[in-house]
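Cross-check.
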Amino acid sequence: MKLFISFLLTVFILQICYADWPVKKKRMIFVTSYSYYHSKSYFDKTGHLTALGDGNSYTSHYLSLFGMYGITDRLDFFANLPLANQRMRENGLLLRKTGIADISIGLAYHFPSEDLKRYFTLKGSLIIPGYQNTTPPYLGYAEKGFQLGMSYSLNLSDQFYFDAEANFTRYFDEATGPNQYFFFGTFGYALNDFEKLTFSFSHQLSVSSDKSFSTNLAANKDFVSGKITLGYGRRISRTVTPHIEFYFTPYGYNTGSASGINLYAIIKVP
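Predicted model, tokenized:
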């Protein structure tokens, strides 16, 4: 399922990493990340959990560099460059593919509250595939697309914060699309000035006239997927904050059932 799309368009995850607060004029943020995804089973078209088959599995390793630059105090430019490695084991054969996945570039505009504790953000980005699909496993849909989104971020107190986000993604090179709808919410709790815990839930709906299911998970276009994520972050300097997250998929249909890990570091410049 497109590198488990809920983290494959790394743009939507990495924007959440810093809660969609604006970068501020002439400042920059970089996020380096690694994601691991592994599946031995899938949710069929009725939502029942089914094994991919004896010895069969699907694994993704995903590296990315995300950057955001403050054009003004409210308008930010962002870009994401991803590198993916897909491994598909089926009927005793191990198929591999490595390459640049879906590149994205876009803009985010922030509307702050007067006390600067709440932000409403609108964003849009273009999706450009850095690969072609010739043999499995696929790195994605190999289609150009766009994504439109909005988010709301607020500090509930000195220790608690909440973020909510909704995105619409359209792939348009093929008549089958798909159109995708993504919803995300996270609660954060600051243990102290340096450490925080996060709990996140996401739901994704992908709609296409192509209802087929393939064990080459990146080929599936019509599916539903949910994900629960637990995370921990620690600021190690004024400008660097590494994070670790563990996630699993509690439900879905026409999609892989998986667990995995995300590692990333937020780097502020200057």
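Residues 170 and 179 are 5 Å apart (CA to CA). The helical segments are 5-8, 10-17. Passed to J.P. for a second look.
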